[in-house]
Amino acid sequence: MQFFKHYANMRNDVKINRLIRKYGLEGYGLYNLIVESIAESLSSDHPIPELEETAEDIADKYRGDTAKISEMMQFMLKQGLFEVDEITGRILCRKIYKFIDKSQTRSEEIRSMIEIYKTSVCPRQIETVRDIADRSRVEVEEDIDSRPKKFRIPTESEVQSYLATRSITYFTASQFIDFYTARGWLIGKNKMKDWRAAVRTWESRAKSDPKRPKTTEELYG
After folding, report:
1. Whole-number Cα distances in Å, 107 to 2, 58, 145, 210
2. Which CATH number is 10-95's, of 2.60.300, 1.10.10, 3.40.50, 2.60.40?
3. Which of 47, 103, 169, 204 makes an SS bond possible with 109, Cβ 3.0 to 4.6 Å?
4. pTM over 0.70
């Protein structure tokens, strides 16, 4: 993705204006740097519009102050200029699909996400970008909250990212994956519906007595 549309009067947007008033050209420049980095990283192998770099990475590359950059990024999140991916904790920019034409990419994954974003009345009612990226065909959910969500076995990296967001060190992602793989992803006799909830259950049981070593069998109960 080498090019994407840019509003000529973006600096007059209410949220952008707040950013400029608080941090001046430094904040405005950082915002555009983040958007450009996200757009540049989009590909068939990486169709999710997220920022791979951390505040520290940006500071190291552009000789900036990590604390200041992190502060500005948090301000952007509070203003709704970006979102946070619930799995990885990375900055996410779904609205970038609004500024990309399907003719600009050969990636079917990206084309599908552009189409669903631009044709949906309310983008929040559609599947998450990760769900879309995992499917070869995309459908708009008319009422996604009223339909049961299909369980998908998580990857080890997904579990590891979720453990990191909750600062869990009582067990590893591989222990969690191996445990439930051996049991066919069942909880008792029932199929698992939410692996994140299972992680939180393990976390709760481990925290109940942090001085006593935990085994996966004890955590599972």
Report:
1. 13, 28, 29, 47
2. 1.10.10
3. 47
4. no
